[in-house]
Amino acid sequence: MALLFRNYMIRFGISSAIIAAIFSPLTTAFAKENLSTNLKEVLEKVTEISTITGDDSLTKSEKDQKELEARKDALVKIFELTLLEDQDLKNRLTNLENLKPEHEEMRKLLLNVFTENENAYRIMHKRLDESTQSDEVKQLATDFKNWRNAVYNPKVEQILSFVLVFQQEKTLSIARDRFQKIQSDLDKLAVAKRIKKEDVSDLLQKSLLHLSLAEELHARAQRTVIASLKQESIADEKTKEILAEEKQPAAKELVSKSIDQVKLAYKNFISIGKIVREKIK
Amino acid sequence: MEQLLTKLKTIEPNKEYQERSRSLILSSPQTTLYPRLAGHFLHALQFSAAFGMAAVIIFLLSGGAESVNRALSPALLSGLDQNSIDQEAQKLEFQLQFSQAEYYANSAEKIEVALKETSDELKNAGNRHEQLNELLQDLTL
Questions:
Q1: What Å distances lie between residue B52 and B40, B48, B69, CA to CA?
Q2: Which of A34, A72, A208, A226 is buried deepest, with most CB atoms within 10 A?
Q3: Can you tell me the ipTM of this complex?
Q4: Where do the structural domains in chain B lie, given as residue ranges?
């Protein structure tokens, strides 16, 4: 019975992994769509505030009441959106595969952020529920804005950089495989005297150069992300300040430059394909 | 009869015939096991070569050279397959989810304005209308 259950669980696990692999790009697209829809709802609620404040047909008490409700609704929507964003980022982090043990540690460190965030939301939500005056809601909005700027936004930036850097690893490995396959095909064609190696050697060399540059930029991006995470765990404030003052290029920017190099390599791959097709006609 | 048989026993070849026969036997080639095996092997080799040659001729006659050419065409060489290269190139951005990073940058900006409006901080800002208009533009997208 236990064996049957174990086999069933293994099959279930494999099936789930296959389904997840097939649908993961779709879930990503749905997640983005969902976030965008919620962001629109936030903006709709906020514009309601200005509509009410500009409505001269309302009495002062009516205006105050409606304004209080609109501000509270806007804040609830903003909290909800922030929670959804948290869930999305959490999924992105947990979906990363084949991390090295030291990077796994960093992922755990980043995942802890969400527990801290949950505590912050709980406190703010409680304050919102208890607010009966417009000034209290306004103050809460200011506090939440300051918290987002000081804690939330930098963390989001760190998580996105971490995810991008480790996603880029996969892209680079695909590009490297493609380069090797092309090289092997060109060797076969040269042995069969269908092409001369010189026909494409320049483009092949350039592709390799672009891939090497992409790898170098990726390595720098990875170092930047790791350094920023290590900086977080340093207790000494003075060292933190010194590290923060050092101009570090943004990891996202480095990944973006790295992907540009991969794109150039692919441009050359396409040109090599065209030349070969011409020669073999 | 017995006498006849005894007589026959005494019959022997003459000396000259004996000598000639012995030299003839000794000068003839000796057949041992190894040369026989080598002979069989050579025979099999000849047969294989002939069979191989026939196969090559049949292969060439049936358009074999053409199929070698086809196997070396860029469409069938997996590394140079145009479709795979194009697909990989298109997936580059998608796999990296840069658009998602853009969403978060945009969201951070918009939520900042939304919270400023909710806290009434925007009321005192000189560009309140511009900032709210930007939010409204986002709504109409």
A1: 18, 6, 21
A2: A72
A3: 0.74
A4: 45-94, 97-140
